[in-house]
Amino acid sequence: MAIATINPTTGETEKSFEPHTAEEVERRIALADDATRVMRGTTFAQRSEWMQSAADLLEAEADDIAAIMTTEMGKPLAQARAEALKCVKGMRFYAEHAEGFLADEMLADASRVNASSALARYQPLGAVLAVMPWNYPLWQVVRFAAPALMAGNSGLLKHASNVPQSALYLDTLFSRGGFPEGAFSTLLIGSRDVAAIIQDRRVKAVTLTGSEPAGREVAANAGGQIKKSVLELGGSDPFIVMPSADLDKAVEVAVTTRTQNNGQSCIAGKRFIVHSDVYDAFSAALADRFRALVVGDPMEPTTDVGPLATESGRDELAELVDDAVAQGATVLAGGSAPERAGWFYPPTIVTDLQDGMRLVLEEAFGPVASLYRADSRDDALRIANQTTFGLSSAVWTTDAADEEYFIAGLDAGAVFINGMTVSYPELPFGGIKDSGIGRELGAPGIREFCNLKTVWKA
Question: Cα separation of 214 and 191, whole Å?
């Protein structure tokens, strides 16, 4: 895939970039390696000052980078600006809390291990490679970079090839904030070049947010080198609605979760599993709301849903819906791509789904909601857990017993009760099963790329 900004609203190439040469890649890896030794000698206070400075820059430039993100991958402009400001919040969070998260953990009674004192200390691993996707061009990167840099690591970014301007903005953001040269830099390379970077002895670990096949390849490569990897992969999250739910609120949030970022979010609710007692009311209200959404130019403030980021992504989404319809599924809203320039697909609801349909088994990465009728909470849990994914989940109920039942039973990295899944800097984020390994964000996120060193003193 060419490294280029191809505007998904028009399908036209806005700007192309030459990949970095082998010599330039080597130079940047060497700088990252050198920066690890500089970073290791800095204090939390110094790194916090640099991180806050970088956050100030991003906040001041939020409108400019938002326009770049919208041009590159099509999200509505207001959502792009919100993403930039979320990054500012995440950067400031780690600037303020990293030292506490990585404080020495003292063994209270060292005599139990025949020592005068004993502790566990977190220390940075070194240079970490981040392989990142296009759907949140800034946030996916910053939620790795902010904790990694605050821990004293350096970062190398291999970003998606369709968001090069976002990648190049990040290339200089942290150095402009004051971080040493090489502490964070972008590699303009193709996917085929990633394996060699992972195998480089100077790269100590790798993190990837992306598809399940990409995750398997990166994990296998890292494992072969005995290197740490953190993977945040796909999701087909259940959104369960029980009879006691606030139905109006559940419908409102269902629309948002399925159509924000033009439906291209791993952690969004995709499979709407609704109890029979409220199924008809929920499905009718959801269909009405979907049909009312405005699909159009993401630069326009009245637009609710813009284009999908890539032509292939739009085509793959259409294939999932067409396959389901061919096997007997019913479309309640949307269902076919419009005849217009750009890679648009309308907000779509598909019901009457059966086992074996691709839409049941695969992740729909676009504004397509799969709607299921459940006869009981046991049936709802069965449907929720029937996929190979396990990223997040949402449950709508005011019944305390239902809450505990689903919290205990859902195969997922998170359960949100009466709310939409959101990644917060304060909370760990990640999945199980084919949705990945490891955690980002919170205290666990900053510790992933640290060596937990035991210190024993006689």
Answer: 9
How far apart (Å, rounded) are the C-alpha atoms in residues 80 and 69? 6
CB hemisphere CA count around 319 (13 angstroms)? 10
* Residues recorded for the chain: 458
In the predicted structure, residue 1 carries a pLDDT above the cut 70: no
Q: Which residues are catalytic?
A: 232, 266
One-letter amino acid identity for 226?
I
What number is the average pLDDT over the span 329-349?
97
Tokens 């637009």 found at? 303
CA 76 to centroid of chain Cα atoms: 18
Beta pairing class for 117-124 and 450-457: antiparallel
- From the list 302, 269, 298, the residue with the least C-alpha distance to 370 is 269
Whether the per-residue pLDDT at 169 is higher than 80: the answer is: yes
First to last CA, the chain: 58
- The per-residue b/e assignment along 299-333, b for 16 or more CB within 10 angstroms, e otherwise, is eeeebbbbbbbbeebbebbbebbebbbeeebebbb
Rounded CA separation 425/428 (Å): 8
Alpha-carbon distance 416 to 397, whole Å? 11
In this prediction, residue 2 carries a pLDDT of 87
Helices 44-60 and 62-73: crossing angle in degrees, nearest 10, is 70
Token pair 């305390």: residue = 400
pTM of the entire structure? 0.97
Average of per-residue pLDDT across 399-416 = 98
Angstrom CA distances, 20 to 3, 13, 15, 168, 189, stand at: 10, 20, 16, 12, 6
Structure tokens given for 3: 């490294």
- Residue 76's nearest CA partner among 142, 176, 8, 26 is 8
Q: Which helix (H) or strand (E) covers residue 175, if one does?
A: helix 164-177
* Interval 38-62: pLDDT, tens: 999 999 999 999 999 999 999 999 9
Are 159 and 132 a contacting pair, CB within 8 Å?
yes
pLDDT greater than 90 at residue 430: yes
Q: How many CB atoms lie within 10 A of CB 105?
A: 12
3-state secondary structure of 146: helix
When the pLDDT of each residue in the chain is averaged and rounded to a whole number, the result is: 98
Q: Which domains can be identified in the chain, with CATH numbers? A: 4-233+433-457 (3.40.605.10), 237-417 (3.40.309.10)
- Full DSSP string of 109-171: -GGGGT-SEEEEEEEE--EEEEE--SSSTTHHHHHHHHHHHHTT-EEEEE--TT-HHHHHHHH
